[in-house]
Task: inverse folding
């Protein structure tokens, strides 16, 4: 299906978005590009899941948005990480770390 | 943060366009950036756009997904569904009105009845922690009696209360109160002058308020010191209503003196408006007076002496650590000891055995005592079941409407499914429509209920000025109505919803127009027919039950009560309130009778102690001809005291001897007239006239000589069995038993018209004589059968309601079927079917439904009539005539309901019909 983001581990999209936004404010396409590049093309993020996720995160107060001119002088919606978003990122990162370690231990046992 | 979520969510539905535009712009931006990137990588614009669309999918889909991520989209779709539901309703207004009215009537009737049941059966006293209150017995006995029945006791002498009152070992507190209210004459004017008014008082012990845990809003309530000494505590606690209406809500009322029966009482407290005492009856008391003031309040000899009569009820507050069973066995033991000691030393073995069989049950007292409750419990339960059935029929109408609509909108749903709507979405749509209907119906029903509750309560309390029954539906009732609405919608919304969402898309899109043949449709039609059959059957059951109850009422009303019930007026007065001592009564009676007799519209007049057809009557054992009666013989006789002209005025025929005459003066030989049952039972061998008897009640001393025999007449009600009855000459009694409280007047024309003249005549005799009540004997008779009137009239109404709803239902469904089969009927007509054949085609369907309904309904009716057997009079529960009548009514009505659509079928124009789809 075209609207499924390819290769993404389930439930990690929000964490990846938060991490991406922690570097600098970005618009939706930029976030998708950045995730794809950094993952070396392993993760592809589709707007069908990215934009609803951003909308949810904005509702939850983890990001806020404003309209700015983009690099090619278009009007684009930029998402900015909030304090609560930063906290959420830390929590999720810790959780993820624990999960990865646990899975690693199980696989190596 | 919560606020932000809320505010950003709230903004959106108010300006849906703005948010949509923003989302669209963002999605487009995303899309364009992706295309540009690909162009930069060397693709042509066309290829880049194609590749992007393949990777991302439809921009519209993305936009919708973002939109759906916000919660307001749910609110909005709900709102859209509701609006869509309104439009659907407006499209077929007939069916919608039918459904809404069905629900309004069903829910309205249910709420009204539930409010009354709640008031009468479930409501707790407005006191603190009513669950801990217990009543000694059910309080169904009331009055002043010489002894209580063996077995369960619920009425006690005052000294039994005195014996147990201070024992706190088993119960936290015990209170006593008179088993009946007492009417008193009150002067509240300044200097306690001015006109006398009547008020309802209740005699209570000093612990009454503290045991109930009721607090005054002004002043104080009684304490134990207020009932310590007999006759010493002239204090009163008044009700909120009495304070407002009679004491002009005077804030300085505490300490004010009012005259009660001529004696001065000080007002010491005002109770809150919610407090109505312990009796949930037609009228709540205006004031509470110390039980030790009984002689002054009742203007009767003291009932407070040791070995006194039985006249009080007892309630108590439980100790949490003592079980009801423990407290009960303690109370029973105390009662038995008390009764033994009362008997003295000369106690027979039989009596000892009788006493050991007595007991007290401690019953939950938190809902107070009520003779209304015991009288109306059974009828209300019957009515509750009936009204529940009415709601069921109403719901079946709603279900049929929703089913019909769902099938006719099959194509719409299929189209929506094909366009990507989820089944859940469509089911939700149908449910929303059902809820909209149910809520509108419920809203209308609540309004209807408010009005109907008033009507029912008015019937039960007979229009009493201040009744503890309240017509305001309380929270629980509202909850009940709302739950009924929602349950209806959910229950009956789901069947069509499930059907609607289970459609096979392609099949339905192709064949949707001729949906008549589909298999799913067939099951729906079966369900809809099943609903009609159930409606028919239930209507038949309700009609049968109502028919039996109406026949009962008819039988009771037509029952010969042994007197002439036309043109008699009954007037209740009280010479005590005007200060008459027994010595002056005979002269007063002569003056009243001669004054009233001389009125032009009056044929005759008489006085008596109790009114005819009153239920409560004086009774006592008697000894015949001075010889003691063998102990096993039932020698209880009902008594009344009457003046000259009593039998003539009431039209009770004299069989032998003479009636009470002016010669039966105080000094003459004591004369009594007995009824036929008395004469036949006690003097089976010969003539009772010339014999005499003595009365065990010390209030009527002396030897009474039988001078005449009259026909049996009824007293408690039309259904009662004849009972020995003796009428004593009132002029020959003494003391408290010489008072006559009722005046009977036989008029020449309409008795209600001479009421004014009689008032004037009595005022002429003595302006201080109060007129407490004035009513025709027919009204008095109606009071006797009010319970049956209540249940049978309401049952009749509910049965008609059910029948109407069922007919509307069959009409709606058949009409819908005819419309649905328009093209089929057109083809038949085009192929040569006559109008008669088409008429028969449609009617045949309804006849089948009717026949099935009747066949199912008859056995259920028979079972139902067995259940109400106890409430019937003069009609067999399986009365074939009633059942036949019910069957005929159901048939006639349902055939009318189906004839209209059938005629519509014959009016179809074949050409139009063939082009119908």
Result:
């Amino acid at each position: 299906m075209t609207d499924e983001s390819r290769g993404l581990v389930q439930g990690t999209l929000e964490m990846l978005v938060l991490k991406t936004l922690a570097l600098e404010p970005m618009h939706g396409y930029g976030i998708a590009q950045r995730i794809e590049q950094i993952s070396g093309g392993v993760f592809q993020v589709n707007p069908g899941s990215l934009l609803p996720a951003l909308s949810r995160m904005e509702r939850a107060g983890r990001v806020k948005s404003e309209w700015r001119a983009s690099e090619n002088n278009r009007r684009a919606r930029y998402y900015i990480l909030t304090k609560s978003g930063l906290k959420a990122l830390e929590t999720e990162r810790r959780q993820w770390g624990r999960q990865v370690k646990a899975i690693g231990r199980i696989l190596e046992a | 943060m919560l606020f932000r979520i809320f505010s950003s969510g709230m903004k959106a539905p108010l300006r849906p366009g703005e948010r949509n535009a923003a989302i669209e712009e963002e999605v487009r931006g995303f899309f364009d950036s992706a295309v540009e990137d690909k162009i930069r990588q060397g693709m042509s614009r066309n290829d880049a756009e194609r590749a992007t669309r393949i990777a991302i999918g439809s921009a519209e889909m993305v936009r919708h997904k973002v939109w759906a991520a916000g919660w307001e989209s749910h609110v909005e779709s709900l709102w859209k569904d509701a609006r869509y539901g309104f439009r659907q309703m407006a499209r077929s207004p007939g069916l919608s009105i039918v459904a809404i009215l069905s629900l309004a009537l069903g829910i309205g009737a249910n709420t009204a009845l539930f409010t009354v049941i709640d008031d009468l059966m479930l409501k707790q006293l407005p006191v603190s922690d009513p669950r801990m209150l217990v009543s000694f017995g059910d309080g169904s006995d009331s009055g002043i009696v010489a002894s209580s029945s063996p077995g369960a006791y619920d009425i006690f002498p005052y000294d039994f209360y005195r014996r147990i009152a201070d024992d706190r070992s088993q119960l936290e507190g015990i209170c006593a109160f008179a088993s009946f209210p007492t009417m008193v004459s009150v002067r509240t004017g300044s200097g306690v002058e001015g006109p006398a008014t009547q008020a309802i008082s209740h005699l209570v012990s000093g612990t009454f308020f503290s045991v109930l845990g009721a607090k005054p809003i002004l002043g104080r309530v009684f304490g134990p010191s207020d009932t310590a000494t007999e006759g010493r505590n002239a204090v009163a606690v008044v009700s909120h209503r009495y304070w407002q209406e009679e004491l002009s809500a005077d804030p300085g009322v505490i300490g004010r003196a009012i005259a009660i029966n001529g004696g001065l009482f000080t007002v010491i407290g005002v109770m809150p408006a919610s407090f109505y005492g312990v009796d949930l009856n037609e009228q709540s008391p205006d004031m509470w007076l110390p039980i030790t003031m009984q002689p002054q309040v009742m203007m009767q000899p003291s009932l407070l002496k040791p070995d006194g009569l039985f006249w009080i009820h007892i309630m108590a507050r439980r100790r949490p650590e003592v079980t009801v069973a423990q407290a009960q066995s303690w109370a029973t033991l105390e009662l038995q000891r008390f009764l033994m000691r009362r008997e003295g030393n000369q106690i027979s073995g039989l009596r000892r055995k009788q006493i050991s069989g007595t007991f007290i049950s401690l019953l939950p007292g938190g809902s107070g005592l009520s003779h209304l409750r015991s009288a109306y419990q059974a009828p209300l339960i019957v009515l509750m079941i009936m009204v529940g059935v009415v709601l069921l029929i109403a719901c079946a109408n709603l279900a049929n409407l929703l089913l019909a609509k769902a099938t006719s909108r099959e194509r719409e749903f299929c189209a929506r499914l094909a366009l990507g709507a989820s089944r859940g979405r469509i089911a939700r749509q149908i449910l929303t429509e059902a809820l909209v209907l149910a809520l509108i119906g419920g809203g209308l029903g609540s309004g209807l209920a408010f009005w109907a509750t008033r009507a029912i309560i008015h019937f039960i309390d007979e229009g009493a000025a201040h009744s503890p029954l309240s017509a305001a539906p309380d929270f629980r009732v509202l909850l009940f109505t709302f739950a009924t609405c929602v349950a209806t919608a959910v229950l009956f919304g789901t069947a069509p919803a499930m059907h609607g969402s289970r459609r096979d898309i392609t099949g339905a899109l192709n064949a949707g127009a001729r949906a008549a043949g589909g298999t799913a449709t067939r099951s729906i039609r079966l369900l809809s027919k099943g609903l009609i059959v159930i409606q028919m059957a239930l209507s038949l059951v309700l009609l049968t039950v109502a028919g039996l109850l109406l026949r009962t009422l008819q039988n009771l009303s037509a029952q010969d009560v042994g007197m002439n019930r036309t043109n008699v007026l009954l007037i209740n007065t009280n010479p005590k309130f005007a200060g008459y001592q027994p010595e002056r009564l005979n002269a007063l009676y002569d003056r009243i009778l001669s004054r009233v007799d001389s009125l032009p519209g009056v044929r005759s007049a008489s006085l008596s102690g109790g009114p005819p057809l009153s239920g409560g009557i004086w009774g006592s054992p008697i000894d015949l001809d001075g010889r003691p009666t063998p102990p096993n013989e039932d020698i209880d006789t009902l008594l009344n005291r009457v003046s000259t002209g009593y039998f003539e005025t009431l039209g009770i025929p004299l069989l032998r001897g003479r009636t009470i005459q002016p010669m039966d003066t105080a000094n003459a030989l004591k004369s009594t007239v007995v009824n036929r049952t008395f004469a036949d039972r006690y003097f089976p061998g010969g003539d009772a006239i010339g014999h005499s008897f003595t009365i065990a009640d010390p209030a009527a001393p002396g030897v009474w000589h039988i001078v005449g025999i009259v026909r049996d007449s009824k007293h408690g009600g039309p259904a009662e069995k004849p009972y020995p009855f003796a009428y004593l000459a009132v002029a020959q009694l003494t003391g408290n038993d010489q008072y006559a409280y009722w005046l009977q007047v036989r008029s020449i024309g309409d008795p209600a018209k001479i009421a004014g003249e009689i008032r004037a005549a009595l005022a002429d005799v003595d302006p201080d004589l109060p007129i407490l009540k004035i009513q025709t004997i027919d009204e008095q008779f109606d009071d006797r059968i009010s319970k049956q009137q209540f249940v049978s009239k309401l049952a009749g109404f509910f049965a008609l309601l059910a029948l109407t709803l069922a007919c509307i239902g069959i009409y709606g469904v058949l009409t819908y079927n005819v419309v649905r089969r328009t093209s089929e009927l057109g083809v038949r007509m085009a192929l040569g079917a006559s109008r008669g054949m088409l008429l028969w085609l449609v009617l045949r369907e309804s006849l089948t439904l009717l026949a099935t309904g009747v066949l199912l309904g008859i056995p259920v009716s028979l079972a139902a009539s067995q259940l109400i057997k106890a409430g019937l009079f003069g009609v067999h529960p399986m009365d074939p005539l009633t059942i036949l009548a019910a069957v005929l009514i159901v048939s006639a009505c349902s055939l009318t309901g189906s004839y209209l659509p059938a005629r519509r079928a014959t009016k179809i124009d074949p050409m139009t019909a063939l082009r119908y789809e």
